[in-house]
Amino acid sequence: MNISFFSEDVSSPKFKKRVISTWIKNVILAEGKVTGNISFIFCSDDYLLQVNRKYLNHDFFTDIVTFDYVEGSLISGDIFISTDRVRENAVEFNTSFENELNRIMIHGVLHLLGFKDKNKKDKIQMSGKEDFYLNELSVG
């Protein structure tokens, strides 16, 4: 299956697409699932706000919106990421744009894998998984 990268109203961020695709496939495999079709769509704050309003009835800025098309163990979905928000988060959390982008990308994949972040306990588990897999990427 396929991991694809698109951009809507921003230039595509620079990263090693083949390395990231392999990493994501390995994360999905490590979680006991199979990679289906996953699309990452990079966009601006304004574009993602419109997606958030139109499809989720949420009227606020966010860094990511994940649409889950998972069927059984086949992991598929569309993951919209605001590069504006990633850039701001990188400054706020004192990390590189690339590291924050990787964190947001794996965050979306973890949502497709069934992880939630609505309460404190779930957020702690999600953050732990993000850190674990980010470390796997930097080691690999």
CATH class: Alpha Beta
- Gyration radius, in Å: 14 Å
| SSE succession | EHEHEEHHH
Strand content: 15-25%
C-alpha geometry: globular
Q: How many angstroms separate the termini?
A: 22 Å
**Residue ranges: pLDDT <50 for 5 or more in a row?**
none
* Count of individual beta strands: 4
Q: What's the CATH H-level superfamily name?
A: Metalloproteases ("zincins"), catalytic domain
Word description of this protein:
With 140 residues, the protein is of the alpha/beta class. The protein has one domain (3-139): Collagenase (Catalytic Domain), CATH 3.40.390.30. 51% of the residues lie in helices and 21% in strands. It contains 5 helices and 4 strands, in the order E-H-E-H-E-E-H-H-H. It has helices spanning 17-30, 45-56, 83-92, 97-112, 120-139; strands at 3-7, 34-43, 64-68, 74-82. The protein has a 4-stranded mixed sheet, with helices on both faces. Helix 3 (83-92) packs across helix 4 (97-112). The protein is globular.
